[in-house]
Design a protein that fits this description.
2 copies of one chain form a homodimer.
Chain A (H helix, E strand, L loop, with lengths): L1 H10 L17 H6 L6 E2 L6 E6 L2 E7 L5 H12 L7 E5 L4 E5 L25 E2 L7 E3 L8 E5 L2 E6 L4 E4 L5 E4 L13 E4 L12 E8 L1 H5 L18 E2 L2 E4 L12 E3 L4 H11 L22 E2 L7
Chain lengths: 306, 306
């Protein structure tokens, strides 16, 4: 009852939350999305959008320059130099990550040149809490961090005492692989989370963005049988056709999509619809939702708006 | 320092936790496992072990009769009648579940007969807390439940106020699909979790066991493109060669394996080794670990013990 009232109030679906009438009918995620306004949605900046084109189709990645500006800039430089074209997916470790880059990165004679890109980038594992990193807090709690929520439309965490904030390793988040040195990552080798949230990686490596479409192409690959899930034979690797910035692709070849904003009452209502499922199947509403279980909806732009 | 002392004490790796000497060298999971004793390991009961044989190899599932006795019994009956042989994997929904059963289950003319098995089984979504359901609590907290930990070697949760306990939907957990009716499941259609923990399913459906080997075979399948990830065309389904109880398979065809017990000081040390990683790569130990991130190690039995 309380949850329904909060929801109705937040979602604006009841005209008066103090009414003595019964609370508005509880809503499902689909109903929340159907009731959303055009202003609840955003289109990612083409300069922050990567197309990873694989034999099976396109993966769309949105970069997170607010959290990883140096890595994002270096990735743009690499992409514009066509660094990734013809490289490969090298590693698929079950319930952990899929990773791609240069199979010959360790061999100076064969490694692909970096051109104008930097070979190492300063660590961007966390940032100071600041006004340019707004934070919509999720009130449900978290095992790993004092506060969790969403910042720049991605799952994030904060430690107010330390004054730090960082992106969180949820399914679909993309990071820049590194060796033992904290500045040994560059964005030339990237990974995506394909299993249970490996939150122990938080604050230890730079997350640079999120897959917003095409996760199934990266999550359904055969697992590598070598240590850490690396493919043992070159012909097991999946070749990368190309990686492009959306801004560099002709309009007709772009993948139009819109993402639900995470700082709106619609998003709050969506979270509530998932915290306490209301379809006929669920018998015991969970009452809570963990950060990485909050869906971040993506849609094709409505026809009239194209 | 504190963590290292607790670990050394728990793992028995320091002779005296009150020593003024520096704490024992922090250990990795590999070191914990190498220091384990034979008694830290157990072999699953062949009467509770299923072999799901697919074209790509064998998946080994351990049933959880302590939590789902009726479902376990019905699954054994179905398996012994070879109900599953020649059926198929029907559904793979990205970041959610892989599901298998009878493609013609809804068609009375074509559905495979149940024989002596029951078509519906009473719900076993949770159980009363009782001495036969011992619980090793994980002190790190949880978003969804008052208490989480391990019971009968599987991830579990408890609500002491309600006096209830239940298995938790972590990666690799196996459940019995059902329709809207709480008793509409039978074990004839099973699913396994292949993504971020769908903990909202807890207490809403019967978990019947856990995949202990071969998860990569179920997690790397092409995602279905129909609603809920069902395959749209019959030829997209992956055929099931057979499902057998290990007890019914000749010794030479069984898959020997041992699982780490979850009620030992070795398991406590293992959790600590994962809560605070100590290899050269990690810079900021997480300090906490969530239930579904705790590894449940499996090994081939040592040669001398076979």
């Amino acid at each position: 009852m309380l949850a329904a009232l909060i929801l109705a109030s937040v979602a604006g679906l009841a005209s008066n939350a103090h009414s003595v009438e019964p609370p508005a009918k509880p809503v499902t995620m689909q109903q929340v999305l159907e009731a959303s306004k055009p202003s609840d949605w955003r289109r990612p900046d083409p300069n922050d959008t990567l197309y990873l084109d694989l034999p099976g189709g396109r993966v769309v990645i949105e970069l997170a320059p607010a959290f990883a500006p140096l890595h994002s800039a270096n990735i743009r430089t690499l992409v514009r130099a066509r660094y990734f074209d013809g490289l490969a997916i090298l590693r698929v470790q079950d319930n952990f990550v899929t990773q791609w880059g240069d199979p010959d990165a360790e061999d100076p004679a064969k490694a692909r040149p970096f051109g104008q890109a930097r070979r190492t980038v300063a660590p961007e594992f966390e940032r100071a809490i600041a006004p340019n990193l707004p934070f919509t807090r999720l009130p449900d709690g978290d095992v790993y961090a004092a506060e969790v929520g969403f910042s720049h439309w991605m799952p994030a965490a904060r430690d107010p005492q330390a004054g730090k904030t960082w992106l969180a390793h949820c399914y679909g988040m993309v990071g820049a692989g590194r060796d033992n040195g904290v500045d040994s990552g560059s964005g030339a080798e990237l990974y995506v989370v394909i299993g249970q949230e490996p939150r122990q990686l938080d604050r230890n490596i730079a997350l640079v963005g999120r897959v917003v479409q095409g996760m199934e192409l990266l999550a359904s690959l055969p697992r590598g049988t070598g240590p850490l899930g690396f493919y043992e034979k070159p012909d097991q690797r999946l070749p990368i056709k190309s990686v492009r910035l959306a801004a560099d692709v002709p309009q007709a070849e772009r993948t139009p999509l819109e993402l639900l904003r995470t700082d709106t009452s619609t998003f709050t209502a969506l979270i509530e619809s998932r915290r306490n499922r209301r379809d006929d199947w669920y018998k015991v509403p969970a009452g809570k939702i963990s950060l990485c279980n909050v869906p971040l909806p993506v849609r094709k732009p409505p026809a009239q708006a194209r």
